[in-house]
What does this fold into?
Amino acid sequence: MAHTLQEIDAVIAQGPFHPTWSELATNTVPAWWAHAKFGIFSHWGVFTVPEFGSEWYSRNMYIQGSAPFKHHVATYGPQDKFGYKDFIPLFTAKEFDADKWLDLIQASGAQYYMPVAEHHDGFQLYKSTLSHYNSVEMGPHRDVIGELRQATLARGLHFTLSNHRAEHWFFMSHGREFPSDIHGELKRGDFYWPAMPEPKDHFDTRSQPYPTQEYLEDWLLRNCELVDNYQPELVYFDWWIQHEAFKPYLLKFAAYYYDRAAEWGKQVSICYKNQAMAWGSGIKEMERGGFNTAQPFHWQTDTAIARNSWSYTTTLDYKEAPEILCTLIDTVSNNGNLLLNFGPKADGSIADKDRQILTAIGAWLKANGAGIYGSFPWEKSAEGPTQAASGAFSDSKAQVYTPEDFRFTSKDGAIYAYQLAPGESTEAVVKTFAAMPAGHEDEGYNGIIKHVEQLGVGDVPFTRDEAGLHIAGQMVADGVPRGFKIISE
It folds into this structure.
């Protein structure tokens, strides 16, 4: 276990990976992850205690005139009397039960789980030698990440972690702009340290003030501590590691992590956004959006079951299960994975709506997952008039599909066709499999279709003509996609 920068260097010197992008790019995408397709994310911590606004409450409560600022003053008092740190004793997690969380996550059909170990607020949900502001010494007085890891592995799922420490450089800075508890000289080890001015442009990779060596070394040590103590099979970073100041430290972390994984005999990778890492050295991540055409590489979209927050609040704008299932299907057809976030309540219990959505997804996957898990893109990914929006932050509105919209995957010689919005008709017409007229067979699908199975139902009748493959399927619940397995020769 590395406790110092010298020990980190020693591990890297002895391992198969060194801190160069060319070497790191030889680390392959984990086969288990490429086959898993669906994982669960969770945002939970001190920021959940007020259950207001979003997981950015710790920042926004110090922005004068904002809704969180006004709510905070009205509910808890002025920020110089009750600051963010004063929520820590209220974060008792009295209803937190890792086994109950993982029972639900397993029931959702997810194959891997990724809790946030430290968010932008700087409070660690794990035992740490680098800061006293962690869940073992304060708040719950429990190793939350350790308990979640144990429950995850006990169910045969893959355990992964997310760390959002990079953004802490500026996250608490607005408290310096008026009388609050964020004032004076802050030193390493202080909860709010360093509270530097926030960049005007979060995507400026050279923004000032430039992160200091002391801060960057602390970032590296925290992440290596997580790797050593919890052996995650993926590590996810939010966007600010793209700042050029992080590059040498990110290189060291990646080399250290990949070297440790080689010791464990595990396949691991790093999820990154934008161009934070060299191509091929990690997994391309798209927040709240994705690619709407099939890609020649594996990628991942992360989104939440609510549109307006990643953490639980009392005013969540929930998506419904059918919409999320359409996102999953569309993502998988384009060679991606879906990482879906939910936020437990402040006390550690899970809201009924979250439970209902995750359970509905799991029930659908139990019947229809054959063309999702372990599948690959087919030669054609989509049919129909509706194309999903493309790019990060493109899922702010629900995509409206029609009965003519299908997405395709393949596995074990079969083709899977998912009808995204079946409507009220029992018949599904897949134009891609139309019987082409004599002399034009090579212009369409010329395989011989032997039988068609509706997933979760069994074999169903079908006919084929120049209009398409007509499948006499069975009705499903309103708005829920249905899948068909097509066997041909």
